Amino acid sequence: MADVAYVPGEAGQERRPAVGYAMVIAAALLFSVNGTVSKVVLQSGISSLELTQVRATGAFFGFALVLALTRRESLRLGRRELPYLIVFGIAGVALVQWLYFVSIGRLPIGIALLIEYIGPILIAIWAWAVFKERIRRRIWAALVLAVVGLAVVVEAWSGVSLDGLGVTAALAAALAYAVYVLMAERAVKRRDPASLTAYGFLFAALFWAAVRPLWRFPGGRLDDSVSLLGRLERFSLPVWLLLLYVVVAGTMITFLLVAAALRHISATRVGIVAMLEPVGASMVAFLWLGESFGAAQLIGGAIVLTAILLAQTAR
Question: Are the CB atoms for 189 and 133 separated by under 8 Å?
Fold first, then answer.
């Protein structure tokens, strides 16, 4: 029988670790596909800032519509939680997306994700140093093993020439990712994951609207057909359809899954299991873009999976 615990501060909320792990794995797989789809969109002439703005604005309206029709009461917002949600929306949601798009636009997807997944280490260190959370040695070993596995997956030793701005963006994305997971872990104890994600995207959308007014978005490009690149180069899809995937499958579903998983497993474990994303992204890049996926990737993927299993056994 699976372990059952309760979320601190929220009576009656059962924790089901198996459900939490399944949610994070599903999110990681969807994020893996989203990376290549986003790279196709960026090649169409849509900038990383414009793609981030579409993603945040579209996700907010999607969540708001669903909640307004199903659970309108969940959208109630207290004055005291407003500052927290504003910071969450900007520092966590808005910046992690934009920095991710900047990094994959300048670096190979696998390399960018390897750097960005320093985030789970930052989460573990913060939980240990600030929250005084007891981190078992097995968790630290899993973190180190996962980073080693990711380095093998992307063959970090091969001497790839890295773009300085891309590396900086990836490092900053790691920090923003850690902020997002830690703030979400705290917030889901008081607010349901769907409304939390909706408000996160609301303030992210408002932030980007202030940075770049919506009327400056190149709407004329939405009907353009763009090549899917790589092995699918002979096929093309309209930009609006690719953006729809990014908003719905690559954003709404994935962010909701991560936020909901934090009700069942800790931020440290969410960060470790989410490391499946670079492995999945490398596989998608191989199948779609024709990027090589040799013995090193298979070995590295096995190391990452071993790290995830090790973390799961650290009860």
Answer: no
